[in-house]
Amino acid sequence: MTFADALLGQDELPRLPISPRQAERARAAAARRPHPVDLADAVITLVERTAAVDGGRLAVTDDTRRLTYAGLAAEARRLASLLERSGAGPGTVVAVGGERNAAVIAGFLAIELLGAVYVPADATWPAARVAEVLTRAGAALLLDTGAGAASPAHAAGAGAASPTLTAGAREAGVRLVRAGEAAAQPLWSGPARLDGLDQPRYMLFTSGSTGRPKGAVVEHQGMLNHLHAKVVDLGLTAGDTVAQTAPLGFDISIWQLLCPLVVGGRVRVVGDATAYDSVAFARLVGAEDITIVELVPTMVRLLLDDLATASRTGPSDDPSGTGPLGGLRWMLATGEELPTEVARRWLREMPHAGLVNAYGPTECSDDVTHHTVTAADLDLLRLPIGGPVVNADLYVLRHEDDGWHACETGETGELFVGGVCVGRGYAGDHDRTREAFFQDPFHDTPTGRLYRTGDAVRALPGGALQYLGRVDRQVKIAGVRMELGEIEAVLQRHPSVGAAAVVVRDFAR
Fold it and tell me: Which residues form the AMP-dependent synthetase/ligase domain (predicted)?
């Protein structure tokens, strides 16, 4: 079965059971934000445009390397040659794993050049998880960016590949290719193979209630629209630097890896040792002029706690005198509900940096709402998640015996998402795709699809949405989306376990 065969077409999706009258009411009440965005270019094309006029501008830095736009473009093309010689081409699924470093970005751009599909394989996963993801994705290759094999600038054969990636690739029967092997490769020639805006661009695996992960497929148009949505709402410019802190298996890693490159800015890939040390991370933000950070709310709380403790126990080593995170423009909180108390502390202790409450499912190209938190929001028990990002359509519906009904302002319903951001469904899993994706009955959108989020929301006066929790047994812990049923299913595989029940207990700090 080819990768295309593993995806459902729009006309194969079910129709949402909603009457014409209720569809019209939902259409009238929808939160929509049409916005002109040029989606015709690949990210590598935008990188090479900047390289052509300012090749010496810094594009990516990590703990050991500094890549200019010219250097990044060249590295991507060497890796494209390596991957093509290894069997990658249009529609091929190529996994990338190993260290989070500059080579991951070059690898993504190389995959884009070939018209292939990117899927991350996190080196911190157990080998069995790596093998399952590679198998379910239908991956042909695994590009390892591990220590000593980080780039074509390093000698081929240096260093050791990740043992879990090696074992997982062997179990899945997938060829392991090391990034360092591209050192002697020629530059791949030709433009990026972009056959259409609906071309699958990447696949990310989310938790599934059956014990099997779901591979959510995102199209080129959805990914690029989300990158531009960040540019529009955050006012990103060539002077911005975004901290890349998310593990590769998280959807937010995509925009962190790529978004600054759309406008000629810089990505700073932050290694795990620093990313998980709040004080060290704050020092790095100040020292390297990082202007935009996105963390899960749990990490925002820890950052504030640790900085407060550090200020009480020792002298400040901030040479700028502007305080911790003094150069930060934006902090984005996403992945789980942002507590009002954390927002209150941020506005009080970091007044120079705006706080954005962001929300979105992996299946819809990441965030579909942004909300800049203000002091007025702090009177609410639950913060708003805001309105739609550009070219996203949001509908709040409630289910009754005769089908779906449109909700009025203040009524609780389930959130549905339409527009260019909606992905293709779950690769190779038509049943679960049909449970969550529908033909869009409201507007003629580029995808023609509507996604059922499973999240309960209500529209506040003024139009902003408020997140109220899940309508099923899915939970988020430190930003990681989990189906309790998946954990139960895995536990019950053990021959000594007859039955299992999983609950969540909140041990507040």
Answer: 48-426
